[in-house]
Structures are given as structure tokens and as C-alpha cells.
Amino acid sequence: MRRTLIAGLIALGTAAVTAESPAITQDFRSGLSAYNTGDYARAFHDWLGLAEQGDPAAQAGIGFLFHKGLGVTQDDAEAATWFVKAAEQGQAEAQLLLGTLFFFGKGVPQSYVSAFAWCDIAGTNGQSDASECRDVALEHMTADETAQSFKIVTDWLGRLPRPLR
């Protein structure tokens, strides 16, 4: 899953070249470079300002650092906070990671309904690993919970922007 997040962040960082100002793009790339060399404290520093300004790739990166305890104290509740911000903007990796937090009840209340919903949304947004998360959550759900999840997904997809690619 770590490789998937990094690949997604690289793709988003590259796409940001045309969509963001050069300074924002450089800060994100600087953080990504720091992450890839194991300088997690520097990655955190480079991404935090961007994340606070609403950049979904940086928010997902900050969330991942908290989730794994890389350069910061491990804190799944804090990770979930950042994943929600990115996921609500259509960031597929954050959606998948948020789904897994709900599946295991790490930093959020355990909920197969929410796990299924976020993983299904991530899959719709192109996150290829999301189907496994979604399908395992489905195995634990009742028919009513399944219907509730489908409604959440349908409502969410109807109101949110298309995926970030």
C-alpha cells in the first residue's frame, strides 16, 4: 500500500505542474523527494503548509506520515483527519487509506459500512487496490448495511468532483 500511495502522489505531483503555481509544485516535489530518501521530517515540513492550504496530495501525504509514524508520532486519529480532507476532494489514495482505517477501527470508530463506502469510492476514482478492501468489508455486512453503504456511495459520487488524476 505504501508503494501505491507514493505512485499516486507522484502522479498527482506531476499533474500539479500544470494546475498549480510553480512554488506549490516545487514544495510538493521537494517533500516527495525528501520522503523517497527517508527524510520524513523534511517531507512533513514541506507538505504541511500545502496541506493546510487545502492541497489534497499533500493532505494525503501528511495523513500517511501520521498513519505510519514516519517523522512524526504515529497517530491514526490525526491520519484520519488528514485523509478525510483529501478524500473529500477526490484523492483516491486517501479514500482507500481512510477506508482501511474504518475497516480496522484505527483512529476512527470501526465501521464496515464506512470502510466499504470509502473503498468503493476510491475504486471508482481509479485506485486499483480498493476492490480488495471493499470486498472484504462487504463480507462482514448485513443486507441493511450493504444498502446503507450503496446509498452513501451513490450520494457521495453524485455531489463530489470527479477524481484527481
Can you give a write-up of this model?
Residues 1-19 have low confidence and may be disordered. The protein has a single domain (2-159), classed as Alpha Horseshoe (Serine Threonine Protein Phosphatase 5, Tetratricopeptide repeat). With 165 residues, the protein is an all-alpha fold. It starts with a helix and ends in a 6-residue tail after the last helix. The protein contains nine helices and no strands.
Number of separate strands: 0
Q: CATH homologous superfamily - what is it?
A: Tetratricopeptide repeat domain
**CATH topological fold name:** Serine Threonine Protein Phosphatase 5, Tetratricopeptide repeat
Name the poorly predicted regions. 1-19
* Average pLDDT, all residues: 83
Helix content: over 70%
Number of domains: 1
**Strand share of the residues?**
under 5%
CATH class: Mainly Alpha
Derived from helix and strand composition plus strand pairing, the structural class reads mainly alpha
Radius of gyration: 15 Å
Distance between the termini: 18 Å
- Largest sheet: number of strands, sense, barrel closure: none
Tally of alpha and pi helices = 9
CATH architecture call: Alpha Horseshoe
Following the backbone from N to C, one meets helices and strands in this order, namely: HHHHHHHHH
